[in-house]
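Q: Could you fold this chain for me?
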Amino acid sequence: MNTGVSSTEKVAQVILSSELLAHWQGHRALTRKLIEKFPEKDFFEYSIGGMRTFAEMIQELLSIGGPGTKEIVTGVTTVQNEHIAHGNSKQKVLELWDKETKEINENWSKINISRFHEEIKSFGLYEGTVQSAILYFIDNEIHHRGQGYVYLRSLNIEPPMFWDRNTL
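A: Sure. Below is the predicted structure, expressed as structure tokens.
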């Protein structure tokens, strides 16, 4: 895949790896706050227009971030599994979210900056670079969080401010 980035540009760095991780973890903190706002029943059952429940969307996110960063570090292809056991407990989902946040941090520290432009095939399916995979993980979370905002507003629940990405 041609990224359109010259070898000279690859040396220059606009954002540090640690800053990108902090940016992502800010998004994860906000998504966690959104999960907390959902009433238990609605988290698992509420949907609009045939969209998935927010719990199902979160399961997708749990199948991407942690496993994806682990795959980047180990080079071992992971099969994406969106069916994560949570026993229809929002508290269990939050525990899984927190566990994955720690796993992302641990794996992140093992990704050498020189690998960000390396070609990979995430989950054995999606070709790109380490950097494009990570940006997809973040973009996908933002996309689904936006759907969660719509759900909360339709339930007459004030969601957290979109800019409130302070970590807990």
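A (continued): The two ends are 38 Å apart (CA to CA).
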